[in-house]
Amino acid sequence: MTIPSFHLFVQTLILGLLVGGVYALMASGLTLIFGVMRVINVAHGAFLILGAYLTYELFQNFQIDPIASILITMPVFFVIGWILQRYMLSRIANPEKTSVLVTFSLALVMEGLLGIIFQTTARSVTPSYTSEALMFATYRFPVTRLIGFGVALLIILLLYLILQYTNLGRAIRATTQDPRAAQLMGINTSMISAFTFALGVSTAAAGGSLLSIIYSFNPSSQADWIGRTLSIIVLGGMGSIPGALIAALILGVMEQMTAIVITLYWSPIVFYFFLFFTLIIRPQGLMGEIIREKG
Amino acid sequence: MKSKIWNLMISIAVAALLITACGGAATTQAPTAPATDAPVVTEAPVATEAPAEPPIKIGASLPLTGDFSDPGTAAEKGYKLWADVVNKSGGLLGRQVELVIYDNASNPDTAVADYERLITEDKVDLVVGPFSSKLVIPTSEVAAKYGYAFPEPAGGAEHVFDRGLTNIFFAQPAPSSEQSIPFAEFILGLPEDSRPKTFAVITGDDPFSISVVDSTAKLLTDGGMTMVLREVYPADTKDFSSLAAKVADLDPDLIVGGTQFEDSVGQIKAYQQAGYQPRGAMFTTGPSLPKEFDEALGAATEGIFAPISWFEESTIETNPEFVQAYHAMYGADPIAEDSANSFTVGQIVQQAVENIQSLDNTLLIEEMHKATFTTVVGPLSFDEVGRPKGSFMVLQWQGGKIVIVGPDFARQVDAIWPKPNW
């Protein structure tokens, strides 16, 4: 173990928070889908990578800035998510029990198709600002991570505002709390489910764009990301977007701090210890609600 | 109710069919091919006349996907080129050569299963090795179990040689622990006022990388330099930002990176973002891939060193012919060292077989220990456990191209020092 200098400590804190914001965006769609539909979308990592590839293609062929391409990829993914939910997932008889298997097979199919279309060479999107960093009070803010953090927070804020202050948002929250009661109140829960799934998948498009400028990726990277995002939503409380944000920031900071204090090998371990102990004390996660099985 | 179950079953069946048809990276043993190529079992007999005898089957399992996919696909090109060259000039012992190549997705367990299958089911006459010490170590034991010779293009870590196997032949000029001698000699030979004093070793957890960087570290510390940091990271690490911040905080003069391709790029980009500008940098793999490294980093490649076993302009006997044949088959892109290494394996196999006029593996192993082979990396001979006896070279990126800067016998131009900002 090495005690870092104060400068290194703060610098690492900054890096952790910046990357935590991006993790939060990636996890927000997943937690939303679980909250409303009780579906664990194991294909979420694959959607992130699909979003990254789409961003890559738009950048390589049309020189579209990866952040700008979010405006293209999010609507496209919304439509894909809608179709997927309406015509495939909604037909599953027992979503709570079988969604993991079905979405897992979807993830594998997507990984395989991506491998055939794009081959397995690692890719990343490299706009002109890739290796730059802003200096502020002797600390470095890598431009790609700073932008990622900003965009992620913006989208999460928008998501939160929609959920809190629009009728649609209220309908979604009602369905999350109690689907049967919501139905009795006149909410079309199957439409809400389709909309929520589509919204969740479209955030994966944005998450994928940010991923593409910060990390390198190939089709099998989807497995790395689904593990991370699932841990975040479990810690944050499944169905809670603020919870996902806090959990993601915690993960980001812990990962980066562990890398400099111990070594990179310990990064995932330290986070999982934290998750483990939190769940012992508070099984519903930091901000989750206790879900009672209806008899 | 019934139609719902029916729909579900059909969906799952379709999904299952798609999965097996697509053959995702780690899930299948079936021979796979790069998307643009014809099926993998290649080098069918050239059809000028019906061959009198069945073809000689040579088997290999390569990492065409996964962590080692870049050098792995380069190695495949070398093998295929060699088979093509041999077949065009009449074959081996008058018979055509047929390669049987499987994709192990950079996974050691898959590679082991592949060689078992090649030897016991496909009944190949000979096998040649995969890329990377990590894969060579377990698969060489399979070959040894069946008494097969195992010439291999890229497994030079100590652990390849210290298990007492005698069927391995590492087809590069020197084992991993000796590959950075020319680089260390250059650094320690710099004049006192410009010589770096401190260095850091940042390596992925891979037997080859660790072997090279640790031996480099020993040479440098024996020469009076100080190692300020040694870190090993998991092989599939993508995020180097905090590691880079740590290195930047210590600011060593020289960075020694133990990398494959992806993490070399990842490290360098992270150092750029962290504002770390060393006076010199060496990476083990990565800078040796002339096309991919340049595409990923552009001007940031300037001044970076790497140990190398071969270079394209070399006039060593058989190399100009190899370069010409390579470009005729694959186009004008620069050649990766790994293709030359696998071609070398082919040359060793060909010369050994022709020397003793036999495909018997026991006799071949004996011959490979005795003879000196004429290859594109120079004359090669091996000690009793397959360590090659020769010298490596050190390359540097200058003006967007790779040039050889040492040792004396191979130098094309002088090295630049210190490294410009990346």
Describe the structure.
The complex is a heterodimer of chains A (295) and B (422). Chain A is mainly alpha-helical and 295 residues long. Chain A has one domain. A two-stranded antiparallel ribbon of chain A has the order 1-2. In chain A, strand 1 and strand 2 form a beta hairpin. Chain B has 422 residues and is an alpha/beta fold. Chain B folds into 2 domains: 188 residues, Response regulator (Rossmann fold, 3-Layer(aba) Sandwich), CATH 3.40.50; 147 residues, Response regulator (Rossmann fold). In chain B, 40% of the residues lie in helices and 16% in strands. In chain B, the strands form 5 sheets. In chain B, strands 7-6-8-9 form a 4-stranded parallel beta sheet, sandwiched between helices. In chain B, helix 3 runs parallel beside helix 4. The interface between A and B is large, with 53 and 49 residues.
Provide the descriptors you would attach to this structure in a database record:
heterodimer, A: 295 residues, mainly alpha, 11 helices, 2 strands, 3% strand, B: 422 residues, Rossmann fold, 2 domains, four-stranded parallel β-sheet, 13 helices, 14 strands
Give a short overview.
The complex is a heterodimer of chains A (295) and B (422). Chain A has 295 residues and is mainly α. Chain A has helices at residues 6-37, 44-62, 70-87, 95-118, 143-165, 167-177, 179-184, 189-214, 222-236, 241-261, 267-281, and strands at 133-136, 139-142.
Question: How are the SSEs placed, and which strands pair?
Answer:
The complex is a heterodimer of chains A (295) and B (422).
Chain A: H1 6-37, H2 44-62, H3 70-87, H4 95-118, E1 133-136, E2 139-142, H5 143-165, H6 167-177, H7 179-184, H8 189-214, H9 222-236, H10 241-261, H11 267-281
Antiparallel strand pairs in A: 1-2
Chain B: H1 2-22, E1 56-62, H2 69-88, E2 97-103, H3 108-120, E3 126-127, H4 133-145, E4 150-152, H5 158-161, E5 168-170, H6 181-188, E6 198-204, H7 207-222, E7 226-233, H8 241-250, E8 254-258, H9 261-274, E9 280-283, H10 290-297, E10 305-308, H11 319-330, H12 337-356, H13 361-370, E11 373-375, E12 378-380, E13 393-398, E14 401-406
Parallel strand pairs in B: 1-2, 1-3, 4-5, 6-7, 6-8, 8-9
Antiparallel strand pairs in B: 10-13, 11-12, 13-14
Helix pairs in contact in B: 2-11, 2-12, 3-4, 8-9, 9-10, 12-13
